């Protein structure tokens, strides 16, 4: 009797695999750019499940490209060194010493930890930053008012995706630290969400996925249950004007808009604090976050 | 509340995918030779699930190679034509007219139906017989006693796997009708189980799987619950001597022995009348049939 | 003296090879689609010579692609099974049972015999049908009048020539059974002449050759000596209107027109009942049948 | 008059290029592993000249692979954080926090600076650590005495050079941070000189070059002019026994011995504080440091 | 009536092509080294037919490699310049001026004429000498007696067949002038028959064919009808000892022996003064000259 | 002390290499067509230095293509044979015998000597003429006045650069004798400067360099110090009209104009009688001759 039950249990599992088959077919050989940040990294269990998702993508023929952030770890290290933060218009003024810390945390501490986690799963990851192969050329942000000096804060000038393409062709999973390099070869502090959007655009990726700590875009930020499952450019514009999309969500929707405008088929903003958020989004029809579309 | 429940349901499914990940890893890029016959074909629902299994293998990076039989359909067509069967030592005497029917049923009716079913699933199959590219060179079986003339009954002389390898390299799923060709270019009636074992050996496949209508090899053929999960060559020899392995099971165990002896990593005899038998066998540690090993 | 005579004999033969050299040059690396049917197959000697021609093409750097019919053998098998034929407007109504016979005769009996004959000549053939690799997608023919149900009679909807191209690239000679597949994966009875024309067009072949049982197109069908060596589209149109081109010749001239319109350089309708008809047509300036040109 | 003088000056320069031609020929397509550490990095002018040397190698068809150290920068950062050093038998005890600093300095600060410097020269570098692509698998060093716990200090267990080979094949200059990864995916502190020797061996490099702050191996460490231009294994053994080779020079000679024993053609220990040390060593017959040979 | 006769004539020609088919099969993709010299070149009609043979080989998938001599044209040019010949032991003493003439006649006059003739046939030839790509490294022949100075007469030291292989791979017909190059880069006068044998050996050619002005090796040189159709090494040794193989035939049999000993399948000595000698030899079973075999 | 001085000497040499690095970068993978003629060949020392330059180019990743002339050597050989020259409008009437000498000197004597010199430097050269691979198709020059018969004097009709491209791809240095071939396969006497310009255009080379015996184009031919370092098409036109560019300089400037008009980046006319003229021109900013630009 027990054997029979076990077989039935197995058949149920087989049925789940078969349910996923149409998605495997749709995404075979496609590239997904996945951005995630500090809130997920803080939870070992969630991190592990996310790495499992990424590894599974690779094994079913999808090419994941990871872009990571690192806010909390950077703040922690700066605090440990008693480096104080100055802000101009909400942007952290980044002097030479701060930039060094930012780069060390992003390009080494966080980047290599993700790489090692993926390699532990028997996939093969390579961690790079925007300096490697001149991947992310950046320029400094300048105010007209010379008193407002943001230091080494900058923005993406050009993505040079050749290295990513070669790593994908050689079956590695690229893991990208969002540090840019300017014309003099110096490091530039850039927004990781922007990097993800630009890289998805440069790769003409199939999907761009932002993992955040909310369930997607909320019609009313105060009401967690007000998630909107799909938004077009016009609707986003209104939500921004109405102050419903603010703060850290802004560069994400901008990244989605840039990506969609450059041929990325689908862009998603998801809650990364759920178990296996990528599988949930990809291998179900409903989706679990907000999808941005042109119209 | 309902949404939450739905998410939990989805997470359970994601967990099933993740459970399968270690098997995806182990079998990535490997070749599986799968033999199945008439009893499965008789059931449209089972056929469909089997084709799903085969398609899934392809999409998770495994190369399935299908060898099919066709006993019941052959018998039906022979009956329809009032062609009577003669047997010598249990082997059907195959005259020219019978051979023509055998070939038409195997190489067209059954073969192309499987091909079309796989193509319907958006994988890409190509059906071939042992004549194509001289895949299966055969010789006639001859008794010393000239009165015992089996006609066009023969056995595999040589497998020429180049065409299969090219089809796999071009991402097609080869579907093979077990019709041999002799030195004069004529069709030869050969045992499909033998063909499967020889092809697995010639390809140095990772797995050879026989789908039958029993749960594997039974220690006591009369007791369906007496399945043995693993047998080595020595144990098989004894079961044969003791008359526990007989009839249609004999060429299967011989195919397994040949395959294992030629470097095939694992050989299985399974019940194909269960839903998704291949997924059940492959993506679980326990397995559901009998595995043949050297020692 | 005798030796001298022998040498002179050999020199004459060498001169024949040298005469063929300009044609070898012209056709090197080109693709020829050759369609032939039942009347040639009925004659073992002619069949053998035709296979020799095809093999020779392959060895002098030309890529032959064979499309075969099978009318007489189909009729024979249907008769053997006492399946009666119904016709609507000259088209055989094809029910499920008839289609099964058609497919078995075309995709197995005839197809594999041609394959084996070529392989006997040490060239390497692979037999496929329109189901393999979804080569010939077909749709059913429908009359507005629901009483006129042709069953599984259809027409080519789309040729997917990738499998043929791969087989050619791998140095195989593709032998194609004209069985189409519809959207539900079922077999469809289609006209072999049409298939040949469509495949020649899809491959942008150098030549399309129809082997028939007459000397080409006759200005006066009653007068066998009235062969026209070349016809343009306009002239064909008139011959059809005047009832000079009728019956089985119609799909052949339509195939030629379609092929020429899609970039096939030369299309020929020849008498296949002559020894070595292909060599005669190809390796002489005069040609032996009718060539169809645009204008 | 002046023009003539200028031409003569130019001809002298052309002669220098021609003098280098035999070396270009000898080393065309070969791989050089170059290790350098903190003393060179401290001097901007020397760093620049070294990067020029590396870039020149690439442009004359040689494949440089860089392994760097980072002692002084690590010490500086640890001091900045008030992390105190404990030593056991001369090895720095590396706890979790220290390892984090070591990794951040090596894999980000130093590694990416070298990468950016090379890219500034219009060559294309990619910075990786031993974690990327599981390049450097390491194991912890353990004393029998449990009281002597070195923490995360380890040694190279296995070099997996595939990623380096792919980067070279794609025309990138690999820059390697000597951080190992153990079986649990954690970072391990390993000796950079050892890493360089092991990588040279794994790549079967043509040359392994250690850039130090002395003129090579000194027969008498107290006498800077006592450089020995060539030493064999036996002579090295004696110098070690006599206490003439000590401290940081020990892992370098061990690296050379390992490399030579594994097929590296030439190994050198040079003074990196001279201008263009690599060009001086490579493109002259005399060489400027100490070369280690088997016998 | 006439048309019928014409068809019969055409069918006879087709039969000749089909007769050649087994030879096409045997030699497909194989390399033939063909040496011919001055006696053929003197006859425009024979030259043309030979070039046709070579072109035909290329078009039926055989790779011809031509080595030519040039005795008569060299003598003519030397006479035109009043350069007198000195001989030591039957070898022409080759001073600097004579060598210049030899090289100019071989590497330009004769070589480029053959090249242009082949190109006129729409095949693609490239003429090279032993200097190109260091194809034929040679050393001078030296007598112990210093008075016997042969000047620039030498022998093959090493064949470097890479350039020939690349030209074949790029579908060119290599035409080789037998001028060697010594260690100082100077031209060396070498025997063309020897060059042909060595090149056949270095290429592991299928066939080596010497075209001469006799019908092969004669058992009795005085009796033109005494041709021997096959000889083994032992028989050749005896014919040499008995003075039956002498003069210019010696380096040819030595070339055959060297070629056979190094894996060349068949070597032939033929009369090149017959029409289409290569086709006659290759595409008939009997052959027309003498074949040299090991035993 | 001496050692120190030596090191300083070495560092100076290293600096020269580093000075050349920007040029290495600019020209990496580019093609240079270099034409030189008899005046350089007359001087063994200059020849050697030029070959060194060419070899160096190859080793620093530049693809040199050599076109040579041969005037003096041709004249010498014609004189040796007492063949008198006739001129019409300054063009040497080329009868059959003269053409044979021209071809022998160009395609053998000069061409193979250059080839051997390069091979002596361990680069790999292959010498070809316009006949090989139908590289230079030519047509005869015809005057309307039939009395003015130039014989085999012709001009370039078409360059077929495929053979050059294949030799470059296989890492050979092509050395080209300027002999054309007409439609009947006969040799045609063409201007070497014109050939060089046309080949540079057909290859879309980076540079075309004419090595002459003057310092470039002189504003006043009588004043050797009046070299103009750069001229545009308009200025050249005026200099021609003013009779300042005459004689052998004319086809060179025409070659430059043709090359520039067809996409060649830079064209130079240099004095080849200076040591290492190519290195001097390429690896300095000033240049040493005259550069022709569009405007």
UniProtKB/TrEMBL annotation, chains A, B, C, D, E, F:
<feature type="binding site">
    <location>
        <position position="189"/>
    </location>
    <ligand>
        <name>substrate</name>
    </ligand>
</feature>
<dbReference type="InterPro" id="IPR037528">
    <property type="entry name" value="ArgB"/>
</dbReference>
<dbReference type="GO" id="GO:0003991">
    <property type="term" value="F:acetylglutamate kinase activity"/>
</dbReference>
<feature type="site" description="Transition state stabilizer">
    <location>
        <position position="35"/>
    </location>
</feature>
<feature type="domain" description="Aspartate/glutamate/uridylate kinase">
    <location>
        <begin position="30"/>
        <end position="271"/>
    </location>
</feature>
<feature type="binding site">
    <location>
        <position position="92"/>
    </location>
    <ligand>
        <name>substrate</name>
    </ligand>
</feature>
<feature type="site" description="Transition state stabilizer">
    <location>
        <position position="252"/>
    </location>
</feature>
<dbReference type="InterPro" id="IPR001048">
    <property type="entry name" value="Asp/Glu/Uridylate_kinase"/>
</dbReference>
<keyword id="KW-0808">Transferase</keyword>
<feature type="binding site">
    <location>
        <begin position="70"/>
        <end position="71"/>
    </location>
    <ligand>
        <name>substrate</name>
    </ligand>
</feature>
<dbReference type="InterPro" id="IPR036393">
    <property type="entry name" value="AceGlu_kinase-like_sf"/>
</dbReference>
<dbReference type="InterPro" id="IPR041727">
    <property type="entry name" value="NAGK-C"/>
</dbReference>
<dbReference type="GO" id="GO:0005524">
    <property type="term" value="F:ATP binding"/>
</dbReference>
<dbReference type="GO" id="GO:0042450">
    <property type="term" value="P:L-arginine biosynthetic process via ornithine"/>
</dbReference>
<keyword id="KW-0067">ATP-binding</keyword>
<comment type="pathway">
    <text>Amino-acid biosynthesis; L-arginine biosynthesis; N(2)-acetyl-L-ornithine from L-glutamate: step 2/4.</text>
</comment>
<keyword id="KW-0028">Amino-acid biosynthesis</keyword>
<dbReference type="GO" id="GO:0005737">
    <property type="term" value="C:cytoplasm"/>
</dbReference>
<keyword id="KW-0547">Nucleotide-binding</keyword>
<dbReference type="InterPro" id="IPR004662">
    <property type="entry name" value="AcgluKinase_fam"/>
</dbReference>
<comment type="function">
    <text>Catalyzes the ATP-dependent phosphorylation of N-acetyl-L-glutamate.</text>
</comment>
<dbReference type="Pfam" id="PF00696">
    <property type="entry name" value="AA_kinase"/>
</dbReference>
<keyword id="KW-0418">Kinase</keyword>
<keyword id="KW-0055">Arginine biosynthesis</keyword>
<dbReference type="InterPro" id="IPR001057">
    <property type="entry name" value="Glu/AcGlu_kinase"/>
</dbReference>
<protein>
    <recommendedName>
        <fullName>Acetylglutamate kinase</fullName>
        <ecNumber>2.7.2.8</ecNumber>
    </recommendedName>
</protein>
<keyword id="KW-0963">Cytoplasm</keyword>
<comment type="similarity">
    <text>Belongs to the acetylglutamate kinase family. ArgB subfamily.</text>
</comment>
């Amino acid at each position: 009797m027990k054997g029979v039950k076990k077989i039935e249990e197995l058949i149920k599992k087989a049925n789940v695999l078969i349910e996923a088959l149409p998605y495997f077919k749709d995404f075979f050989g496609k590239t997904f750019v996945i951005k995630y940040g500090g809130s997920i990294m803080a939870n070992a269990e969630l991190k592990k499940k996310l790495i499992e998702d990424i590894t599974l993508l690779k094994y079913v023929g999808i090419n994941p490209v990871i872009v990571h952030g690192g806010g909390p770890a950077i703040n922690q290290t700066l605090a440990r060194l008693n480096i104080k933060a100055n802000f101009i218009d909400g942007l952290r003024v980044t002097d030479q010493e701060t930039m060094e810390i930012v780069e060390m945390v992003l390009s080494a501490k966080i980047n290599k930890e993700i790489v090692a986690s993926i390699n532990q799963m028997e996939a093969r990851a390579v961690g790079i930053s925007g300096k490697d192969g001149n991947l992310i050329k950046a320029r400094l942000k300048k105010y007209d008012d010379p008193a407002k000096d943001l230091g080494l804060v900058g923005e993406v000038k050009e993505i040079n995706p050749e290295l990513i393409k070669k790593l994908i062709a050689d079956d590695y999973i690229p893991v990208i630290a969002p540090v840019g390099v300017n014309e003099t070869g110096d490091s530039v502090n850039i927004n990781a969400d922007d990097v993800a959007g630009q890289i998805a655009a440069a790769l003409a990726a199939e999907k761009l996925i932002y993992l955040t700590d909310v369930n997607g875009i909320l019609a009313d930020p105060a009401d967690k249950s007000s998630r909107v499952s799909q938004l077009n450019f016009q609707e986003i514009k209104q939500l921004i004007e109405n102050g419903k999309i603010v703060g850290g969500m802004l560069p994400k929707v901008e990244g989605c808009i840039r990506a969609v405008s450059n041929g990325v088929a689908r862009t998603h903003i998801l809650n990364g604090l759920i178990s296996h958020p990528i599988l949930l989004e990809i291998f179900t029809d409903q989706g679990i976050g907000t999808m941005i579309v042109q119209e």
